[in-house]
Amino acid sequence: MLLIAAVAVVVLGPERLPLAARALGVLIGRSRRYLDDLRSQVTEDLELGQLRAMKSQIESGVQEFAALADRGGSLARNAVTLLDADTSETPMAALPEHDQAVRRARLSRRATESWRANAPTTGAGDGHPPRRNRRHIGAAQPRPLRHAAARRRNRILMGIAR
């Protein structure tokens, strides 16, 4: 580096050396900006290529899912038709599972109706128990802390009155 500077002083002379150094600095700055722009464009192109690849993968996945959904829908329709054919041959009342399900439904309906008839109401008649008063939640806090704000306010007011 020192050798290049010595040759530049000899060739250009001390009068033109500052102008040449300034021009060289401008050229180096332009080249750096150009290389930075080029590097950013290359990275954008690479990212764009990756995004396109991801898009194609997602689209293929969506198509596979749509095909599976169509196949599943046709299977469901076939199952429904088979079930309809089976139930037409055997009435539901003859099946023991049906009797038990009907009994459970009736018992749960009766239990719900009796609870609503005997439950305390909020006054709206909706059958739900009354809501809890939320003002009592602060009772878990110690009394001196609970009333500290009121005490401060009273002291301020007493000071103003004097």
TrEMBL record:
Entry keyword Lipid metabolism: no
Keyword DNA damage attached: no
Keywords from the UniProt entry: Cell inner membrane, Cell membrane, Membrane, Protein transport, Translocation, Transmembrane, Transmembrane helix, Transport
GO aspect biological process, one term: protein transport
Membrane topology, as annotated: Single-pass membrane protein
Residues covered by region (Disordered): 108-150
GO CC, any one term: membrane
Protein name: Sec-independent protein translocase protein TatB
Lineage: Bacteria, Pseudomonadati, Pseudomonadota, Betaproteobacteria, Burkholderiales
